TrEMBL record:
InterPro entries: DPS_DNA-bd, DPS_DNA-bd_CS, Ferritin-like, Ferritin-like_SF, Ferritin_DPS_dom
TM spans (from-to): none
Family: Belongs to the Dps family.
Gene3D superfamilies the record matches: 1.20.1260.10
Protein name per its UniProtKB record: DNA starvation/stationary phase protection protein
Superkingdom as given in the UniProt entry: Bacteria
Species whose genome carries this gene: Pseudarthrobacter enclensis
GO molecular function: ferric iron binding; oxidoreductase activity, acting on metal ions
């Protein structure tokens, strides 16, 4: 099978956000300070590792479909849907919010392109399913770091 331009473009959007998630996760990891530092520091490495591995899976899927992945920094900077990560030291509480938002945004990109991907290539859609499942789990876990036990868990996340 050969990817259409639409399928290639959709997978490229996913790839771009996964690469950016990896980079922002490392930025957060290096500049984290505050309460529960060590646990969050290690959790960020788990997120970074997942994002890096998923980016590789998406890029290799693109190559299997005769599409060309573009992971150049200029492409990632120009095309990512993730907001930039703040410069300097970041508190653990702020980092939880920032990383949760970026995990959720990365998942949103995948959900935005899912139906078009699935229409053309259910195998690529299956890959997206696995990535979505894991990133949503990681978002839940990192967000739980600062969640109050009285929080309404069924309400949508704050934007």
């Amino acid at each position: 099978m050969k990817a259409s331009p639409t399928l290639a473009s959709n997978l490229q959007l996913v790839l771009t956000d996964l690469i950016e998630l990896h980079l922002q996760g490392k930025q957060a990891h290096w500049n984290l300070v505050g309460t529960n530092f060590r646990d969050l520091h290690l959790q960020l490495d788990e997120i970074v590792t997942a994002a890096r591995l998923f980016a590789d899976d998406v890029a290799e899927r693109m190559r299997a479909l005769h599409a060309l992945p573009d992971g150049r920094s200029s492409t990632v900077t120009a095309d990512t849907r993730l907001d930039g990560f703040p410069e300097g030291l970041t508190s653990t509480k702020d980092t939880v919010k920032l990383i949760t938002a970026r995990l959720e945004r990365t998942v949103k990109t995948m959900r935005d392109v899912h139906d078009e991907v699935d229409d053309e290539d259910p195998t690529s859609a299956d890959l997206l399913h696995a990535v979505i499942e894991r990133l949503e789990q990681l978002a839940w876990m990192v967000n739980a770091e600062t969640m109050a036990p009285t929080a309404a868990v069924t309400e949508p996340a704050a934007k």
